[in-house]
Amino acid sequence: MPLPPGWTIWLTGLPGAGKTTLARALQERLWHRGIVAVVLDSDAARPVLAPEAGFSGPARDRFYGQLAALARLLNQEGANVIVAATAHRRAYRAVARLALAPRFAEVWVRCSLDVCRERDPKGLYARAAAGEITDLPGLHVPYEPPDAAEVIVDSDREPVEAAVDRILRQTPFLGAG
C-alpha cells in the first residue's frame, strides 16, 4: 500500500520576521499531535543545495526551485514539510505552489521592517547598513507580499503560540486547530 502524500507549508516573510522560530514551534506542536514534519530552513538548505551559488537573480531562481523540488520529493515519500524561506518574489512561491498543490499552504509571516531590523538575528541588516550586503530583500531587493496566502500572521504583534494556533486553524489540510 503506498504512503499517503505529505504536505508543505511555506513560511515567507522578510529576513528577521520569525520564519524559522515559527517553523520550529509549528513542528513541535505537530509532533505533540503525532504528526511528524521536516523543517527545511533556507539558511541550512542553501549550503547543501547550492554551495557555490550567490544571491543573484538566477542563483536565487535555481535555489528556490531546488527547495520546492526537494519538498516535492519528500511529499511524494509521505513526508510533511515546513519550509522557512524568504522567497522574496511571488514567482518563487508560485512555482512551489504549482509543484506542491494541492497540499500546499503559503503562510505570510508579516512583520514591519523596523522590527526586523531591531531583531536582526543574523546581523544581515547591520551588514547591509555597513555596505557589506547589497541585495537584502526588503531593503535593496523588493519583497513581494503574497497575493493570496492561506494564512497571515503578524509576528511583530502576536506571540509565537498564537501564530501557530492560527496556522493550525486556517491551513485546510491540517483541519481545525
- What spatial order of strands do you see in the largest sheet? 2-3-1-4-5
Beta fraction: 5-15%
- Kindly provide the radius of gyration, computed on alpha-carbon positions and rounded to a whole number of angstroms: 16 Å
Q: What's the count of strands?
A: 5
Class, according to the CATH hierarchy? Alpha Beta
Shape: globular
Which residue ranges are poorly predicted, with pLDDT under 50 across at least 5 consecutive positions?
Answer: none
Task: Provide an overview of this structure.
- With 177 residues, the chain is α/β, with parallel strands linked by helices.
- It has a single domain (8-172), classed as Rossmann fold, CATH 3.40.50.300.
- Helix content is 44%, strand content 15%.
- The protein has helices spanning 19-32, 42-49, 57-76, 90-100, 113-119, 124-129, 160-170; strands at 8-12, 37-41, 80-84, 104-110, 151-154.
- It has a 5-stranded parallel β-sheet with strand order 2-3-1-4-5, sandwiched between helices.
- Helix 1 crosses helix 7 (160-170) and helix 3 packs parallel to helix 4.
- The radius of gyration is 16 Å and the shape is globular.
- The model has no long low-confidence stretch (mean pLDDT 88).
